[in-house]
Design a protein that fits this description.
The complex is a heterodimer of chains A (865) and B (165).
Chain A: E1 12-21, E2 24-30, H1 34-40, E3 47-48, E4 55-56, E5 69-72, E6 75-79, E7 90-92, H2 107-110, H3 120-124, H4 132-142, E8 159-170, H5 174-184, E9 190-193, E10 207-210, E11 214-215, E12 223-227, E13 231-242, E14 246-248, E15 261-262, H6 264-272, E16 281-286, H7 289-300, E17 304-310, E18 319-324, E19 327-333, E20 336-339, E21 342-345, E22 349-351, H8 354-359, E23 362-366, E24 371-375, E25 381-383, E26 410-412, E27 417-418, H9 419-427, H10 433-440, H11 453-464, H12 468-471, H13 485-489, H14 502-507, E28 511-515, E29 518-523, H15 528-537, E30 540-543, E31 548-553, H16 557-564, E32 577-583, E33 589-599, E34 602-607, H17 612-626, E35 631-634, E36 639-645, H18 649-654, E37 673-678, E38 681-686, E39 695-701, H19 705-714, E40 718-719, H20 722-731, H21 766-774, E41 780-786, E42 797-800, E43 803-814, E44 819-826, E45 836-841, E46 844-851
Chain B: E1 32-34, E2 39-44, E3 57-62, E4 65-70, H1 74-83, E5 87-90, E6 95-101, H2 103-107, E7 119-123, E8 126-132, E9 137-143, H3 144-160
Antiparallel strand pairs in B: 1-6, 2-4, 2-5, 3-4, 6-9, 7-8, 8-9
Classes of the chains: A alpha+beta (865), B alpha+beta (165).
The structure holds FE2/S2 (inorganic) cluster.
């Protein structure tokens, strides 16, 4: 029921706001929260508890407890007591079977108690092991909080903003505001963050106010992320002032979670902010003056207050709340029942020090006041107001927990942990607060210890007979306030590398796939074999812009490359190309590509598509070690590249260059590199043959990608994608580093014993290659053909005499070869040409035979044509 | 001796080159402009020996590495810088460039300190070179192969600020 206008009320009674709650129409006023509007309309049960499904009502009205979690517009776990009302919102209860008032799962509270003590899952649900998935499913349905609606994406957008501030003040109470205003007099760059609604739109001179907004934590380097709804501000401040105040602590007594047991501040908010009469008859159990004052406010709001107890001066021996259908009906104080529908109870205030602890402040216990206070703040931090302990004290929150036949006494309402649970954990040997936390899960729920840490520590101290200072606190970890994962993730951008020709592939209907960090065409139609055939019989073109491209230039460029690669470059003439493999210090194959000598002191190196950055870094690292006079420049992005391949490649190219003689057979031989203008685009043309046909790789400035591609296609070149390329290279038994090799593969076992020049003084991995050459060979990479028309999976097991004997790395059906072909690692004694072995395919084994050399055009005549 | 003409978009026939951002920025609001085909050289060697010409801007990343932004023909600028004894490579085709307006927009995209530019660092989740012009005007250069997605991220950030549709 609403009261008459209150002096500081937040609501605008002239503006009605309608929404739906649990399928019914509901309403409130502008300025209401969803929770206050529901409370004003008579709703008292706001949630069901995590484990026992006990009814729960508003407790703190400040977004700190788990009692008002609901699903709002498909976003689960929204604290409706602080969620501003909005027109058309769809609000639904969560963790309920039935309705909030009649939840079928409340049976766990009635009969499940003896069967669900702390640690029950850990002890009971581990056997039989195979049943765990079923247990998990059932438990997840019975316990827990809201469910993510996978069809709905919650907020329409999440943004992240990186901010810098000279002074960041967290907490907009009196101390925080004063600190912010004082800082503002010394210059700009002052930001005040407050989680409450009162400062929304507030103007403080020279201060930027963010409210409602929550500082989620303090990370290294003073990073403070602030949740301001759909925007996450990532603040870095020169000085951080923490003025987060203090938190009222619940009392622990039987029935302390009944609907109608509230903290004084929660009651005060209902009256002051939303003009709501919270109940008809209230009992007030106060531990400080603030809480005592609530009794007066209640009376002014027309609530009868038959009993007010100041626990500091009149400690009660026994407190108990009695209830009907989960709602408070009486407070029993030292055996005397007082009828009421509201129990306002608090153990006093505990400084809200978590952010400071995260920043590195030490926290110590003050026995005289019964509170933990921050001490020794790190440089750049300041604490002000109640967070320092100013004006704070608590009475012992534990009251009469040992009731026999009484209701449960909850230490932690988030996780439904009772005093009995904590006692049992201690009895079972969980003898440190950190261990106990993990076992009982106390402080691990949505409040993150705000309302249960102090009580659990003091219960622990009392039961074990040690001091609170010895028990200590659990580690304060971010986030201090719950945050949507979407907000932490930020805007959904997953940057992909695209070649400058990429959109031509999309326009041609190619199937695009991820290839490392790149988006590349898999094939242009449903039949990649058509594209393979085009390359063999006519002309194909593939976008190979993704290849790594590196210029190595300088008077000692050749020395650098000679030492980086196992093979030779000093004897290469400008204009020639050589295949190269980079090995690690351990002699393992790292990457491969071609090296073209463009001038005496200038080389053009290509790498695999995923290897450009790593190879550049490798080159630079070694060059820094050796100190050669050579520069390494990664030009991968600067250049697009295409491979024009097929019997018609020369003819097509000759029509696009100024002088057809430039590409005539003798003028442009296999493994020549040449600068040519093709269709008006200066290119570095490399005559190489990864796909086994006469071919030219054209490397040219990226911005001309689409132009040159269009011209080549106009000359009759069929675009072909990655899949046809894989078939074509496999027909030539060309390896793909990383697919056919792994981190253990070396040059000798990969069949490249011709490549390392061991007579060179040194190269990276030389010692290891020499060692491998002396050692007995373990396995070897060889080609094979299948005896049946089945394609084994990449990674399929090789079976030799019924035992695992190796693995398949690549396999494809080749029309040109007329068989399924592949590469596999086999024991050396099984690598003779024609040797039979078996491969596991779909739960059976299929015969295969070793095949040496290329499967297609073994002499290489076609690519050398 | 090669002149590395194949690196230079300016050496391509007229009309044969295109910006990597032209699809993403088609119809973009005025706070975003495409700078992609403006000339830029990557420099290696003793950068102190490079003299920026009229309208050029030299950005030093280290004593031996830098970029030279040039309003003229970058191919010619390469020859001039090389003649001064510093290695230069035409990087015009390597970078996608964006001119952006608004500090808040920038803060949504990078955690670089905007008062301490130029700097290299993350921008829209990729590595970028970020420069500041007068007031709240900025230039951002990213690898061209990532440019399309970066431009989309910029437009999305603008939409978040309700500065773009
Ligand atoms: S009542 Fe809403 S968080 Fe406590």
């Amino acid at each position: 029921m609403r009261l008459g206008p209150q002096p500081r009320e937040l609501i605008d009674r002239s503006q009605r706001v309608l929404f739906t709650f649990d399928g019914r129409a509901a309403g409130g006023y502008t300025g209401d929260t969803i929770g206050s509007a529901l409370y004003a309309s008579g709703q008292r049960v706001f949630s069901r508890s995590f484990k026992y499904h006990r009814p729960r009502g508003l407790l703190c009205c400040s977004g700190h407890c788990p009692n008002c979690l609901m699903t709002v517009d498909s976003v689960p776990n929204v604290r409706v007591c602080v969620e501003p009302i909005r027109a058309g919102a769809v609000v639904e209860p969560q963790n309920v079977w039935g309705s909030l008032d009649r939840d079928a799962l409340a049976v766990t509270d009635k009969i499940g108690g003896p069967f669900t003590p702390v640690g029950f899952y850990y002890r009971t649900m581990i056997r039989p092991r195979f049943m765990w998935p079923l247990y998990e499913k059932v438990l997840r349905n019975l316990a827990g909080l809201g469910k993510v609606d996978e069809r709905h994406h919650g907020h329409s957008r999440y943004d992240v903003e990186h901010r810098r501030a000279r002074v960041l003040v967290v907490g907009g109470g009196q101390s925080g505001r004063a600190a912010a205003l004082a800082a503002a007099t010394r210059g700009p760059g002052v930001v005040l963050v407050d989680e409450g609604m009162r400062l929304r739109g507030a103007e403080l001179e020279g201060v930027e106010v963010l409210a409602p907004a929550r500082a989620l934590g303090i990370w290294e380097g003073g990073l403070v992320p602030v949740d301001a709804g759909g925007v996450l501000y990532r603040f870095r401040a020169e000085r951080i002032v923490v003025a987060t105040g203090a938190l009222e602590q619940p009392l622990v007594f039987p029935g302390n979670d009944l609907v109608g047991v509230m903290l004084p501040d929660g009651v005060r908010r209902l009256i002051r902010d939303f003009a709501i009469r919270p109940a008809s008859r209230a009992v007030v159990l106060a531990s400080d003056d603030d809480a005592l004052e609530v009794a007066d406010e209640l009376r002014e709001a027309g609530v009868a207050v038959p009993r007010v107890v100041d626990l500091r001066t009149a400690p009660l021996g026994r407190i108990e709340a009695k209830g009907r259908r989960g709602r408070v009906s009486a407070a029993v104080l030292d055996g005397r029942a007082v009828e009421c529908d509201l129990v306002v109870a608090s153990a006093g205030r505990q400084p809200s020090y978590s952010l400071l602890a995260q920043a590195g402040a030490r926290v110590e216990y003050e026995p005289s006041r019964g509170i933990f206070v921050p001490a020794e703040l790190p440089a750049g931090f300041e604490a002000l107001g109640a967070v320092t302990g100013e004006g704070c004290a608590t009475v012992h929150p534990l009251r009469s927990s040992g009731a026999r036949n009484g209701d449960k006494s909850f230490v932690c309402v988030c996780e439904d942990v009772t005093t009995k649970d904590v006692d049992r954990a201690i009895a079972e040997g969980f003898d440190s607060i950190e261990l106990s936390k993990r076992y009982t899960t106390v402080t691990m729920g949505p409040c993150q210890g705000k309302l249960c840490q102090l009580a659990s520590i003091r219960l622990y101290a009392r039961t074990t007979g040690v001091s609170e200072a010895t028990v200590g606190t659990t580690t304060a970890r971010p986030p201090w306030a719950p945050v949507e994962l979407g907000l932490l993730a930020g805007p959904h951008h997953e940057p992909a590398r695209r070649s400058s020709i990429h959109f031509r592939h999309e326009e041609a209907g190619a199937t695009i796939q991820w290839a490392g960090p790149w988006k590349r065409p898999y094939a242009y139609g449903e039949h990649p074999e058509d594209e393979v055939r085009a390359v063999h019989e006519s002309l194909g073109v593939i976008d190979v812009s993704t290849l790594g491209k590196i210029l190595v230039e300088g008077p000692q460029a050749v020395e650098l490359l000679e030492r980086l690669y196992p093979n030779r470059f000093g004897d290469m003439k400008p204009g020639r190309i050589r295949y190269g493999v980079i090995t690690s210090d351990g002699g393992r194959i790292m990457d491969d590509g071609t090296i073209a000598r463009l001038a005496d002191d200038l080389f053009y190196v290509t790498t695999t598509s995923t290897g450009a950055d790593a190879v550049t870094a490798w080159f630079e690292w070694w060059n820094a070690v050796w100190g050669y006079d050579a520069e390494i420049v990664n030009v991968t992005g600067a250049l697009a590249a295409v491979n024009l391949a097929g019997p018609r490649a020369r003819e097509a190219l000759s029509r696009l260059v100024d002088d057809p003689d430039d590409v005539a057979g003798d003028a442009f031989r296999y493994l020549d590199a040449k600068e040519l203008d093709v269709a008006g685009v200066p290119c570095l043309a490399l005559r190489i043959g990864f796909v086994g046909e006469l071919g030219y790789e054209l490397h040219f400035a990226s911005p001309a990608g689409e132009h040159l591609w269009d011209r080549l296609v106009a000359e009759g070149a069929w675009p072909f994608g990655l899949e046809p390329q894989r078939v074509l290279r496999l027909e030539k038994a060309h390896i793909i580093v990383g697919q056919d090799t792994d981190s253990e593969s070396n040059l000798l076992s990969a069949g490249m014993s011709w490549l390392p020049k061991l007579e060179k003084d040194d190269f990276v991995g030389k010692l290891a290659v020499e060692h491998v050459a002396r050692r007995e060979e373990v396995e070897r990479l060889v080609g094979f053909t299948m005896e049946e028309d089945v394609v084994p999976a990449e990674g399929a097991q090789v079976v030799i005499e019924g035992r695992p004997g190796g693995r398949v790395t690549s396999a494809r059906r080749s029309e040109a070869v007329g068989a399924v072909i592949g590469l596999a690692w086999l024991p050396p004694e099984r690598c003779e040409d024609g040797t039979r072995f078996e491969i596991r395919v779909d739960r059976r084994t299929v015969g295969a035979r070793v095949r040496h050399g290329a499967f297609y055009d073994a002499s290489g005549a076609r690519m050398r044509a | 001796m090669t002149e590395l003409r194949f690196l230079s978009p300016s050496q391509c026939a007229e009309g044969s080159t295109a910006s990597p951002l032209r699809r993403a920025l088609d119809g973009a609001p005025e706070q975003v402009r495409d700078l992609s085909l403006q000339g830029v050289l990557e420099l290696r060697g003793d950068i102190a020996r490079v003299e920026a010409g009229e309208g050029e801007e030299l950005v030093r990343l280290s004593p031996r590495r830098g970029f030279l932004f040039t309003p003229g023909d970058p191919f010619e600028a390469v020859a001039r810088v090389r003649a001064a004894g510093v290695l230069a490579y035409d990087s015009t085709g390597a970078l996608a460039g964006l001119a952006l307006e608004g500090e808040q927009l920038m803060r949504r995209l990078t955690d670089l300190e905007l008062t301490k530019l130029p700097a290299a660092g993350p921008f829209a989740r990729v590595s970028a070179l970020v420069l500041r012009d007068e007031g709240e005007r900025f230039r951002v250069y990213v690898p061209q192969e990532l440019g399309h997605d970066v431009a989309l991220a910029v437009l999305d950030a603008l939409a978040g600020l309700e500065l773009a549709p």
